[in-house]
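Support reply, case 0932

Customer input (verbatim):
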Amino acid sequence: MAKPTTLSAAKLLVMLGDGATPTEAFTAPCGLTTKGISLSAASNDITVPDCDDPDAASWSERVISALSGTVSGSGVLAMESFETWRDYFFSGASKNARVKIDTTLANNGGYFEGKFILTTFNVTGELGNKIQVEIELQNDGEIVWVDASA
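Our regenerated output:
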């Protein structure tokens, strides 16, 4: 068995766009120690009868009706990023964001990109610990994959 190529979790970046035109810059707010993207598909079930034998059990088939994505992150609240998250949440606006797999391996890296709304911004603290932050972004339209070589 060949050993798989793996990456450090630090190579997974949640990056927010600054909205500048014509060239938007993307930066990763500091403090997130856990990050991820979850892609899902909503489907409709359709029962398809057997035309040759209507008494036979029908098979269910599925049709994808919608695709969606959620970006999540948690970690310590870096005060350098607090204003970014706070302003993003209170704006109620969608922003361009990327979830980047940062690698130098040919054709294996790249990023998911789309418009997202910050739907969760939790700030919590426990005595004897650092202040924690938890964020969740929901897509606001299409999400695309861009290869690192592009």
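We compared this against your earlier run and they match. Two observations from our side: The first strand starts at residue 12 and ends at 17. The domain at 11-147 is CATH 2.30.110 (Pnp Oxidase; Chain A). Please reopen the case if you see a mismatch on your end.
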